[in-house]
Write a structure and sequence with these properties.
With 216 residues, this protein is mainly alpha-helical. The chain is built from 11 helices and no strands.
């Protein structure tokens, strides 16, 4: 569980999020749409994993902002159809740190401070082979582990200009295969049991009305 289980969300949180997400949408609408989906799925996975309502909102906002650092990555790299060269790969791997740096000025408030570990750590792996800090196992913040599962699902299942999205059964099999090495096995189990049911559930209406709808 997260170290601080309860807290308040400042009245201006949604306006700040709207401004950040609008900036991302202008630069990279594909990543913007991806972040909206990841934020919603992170909230649902946090809920189904037993986190409380405040922690669910931390997971949701962390998911919304997890890739906002890609504003600083050239589109030629983000949309490149072939394999990235070493320099491009290093630049892409720096995006969690850039995402953290973009949100950090808001972290004078405890709610936004609580977002930073999940944002920075969303590419850490259970086996310690992730980035940027090579954190191992349960030392990886819970929200970061949540985002990695839903981020991977969305990245694999969505069609891009350079490849077709994969069907759910193929993505599920990959999550199972990498459970325990890349992904938290408990979170994978919760995701696989719950994901089909999410399609029948409504999204977070407050986030939709106050952030996503206003950036449309």
């Amino acid at each position: 569980m997260m170290s601080s289980s309860w807290g308040d969300i400042p009245a201006w949180a949604y306006e700040a999020a709207q401004a950040l997400m609008q900036s991302l949408k202008v630069v990279d609408p594909v990543t913007y749409a991806h972040c909206c989906r990841v934020g919603e799925m992170a909230r649902k996975l946090a809920r189904d994993a037993g986190l409380n309502e405040y922690e669910q909102k931390v997971a949701e906002f962390s998911g919304l902002f997890h890739d906002i650092g890609k504003i600083g990555v050239p589109q030629s790299i983000i949309a490149k159809p072939g394999k990235l060269d070493e320099a491009e790969h290093l630049m892409m791997q720096n995006h969690p740190v850039m995402s953290e740096q973009i949100v950090e000025p808001l972290a004078k408030h405890d709610f936004f401070a609580a977002l930073l570990p999940g944002i920075r750590g969303h590419h850490e792996r259970m086996d310690g082979a992730g980035y940027p800090d090579k954190i191992l196992g349960e030392d990886i913040p819970m929200v970061a582990r949540i985002i990695l599962v839903v981020d991977t699902y969305d990245a694999m299942s969505q069609t891009r200009a350079y490849r077709k999205g994969l069907p759910d059964d193929v993505v599920y099999a990959e999550l199972k295969r990498c459970s325990g090495t890349q992904f938290d096995p408990r979170l994978v189990q919760v995701f696989l049991q719950a994901h089909e049911g999410w399609k029948k559930q409504t999204n977070d209406l407050e986030t939709f009305e106050r952030i996503i709808k206003k950036t449309a």
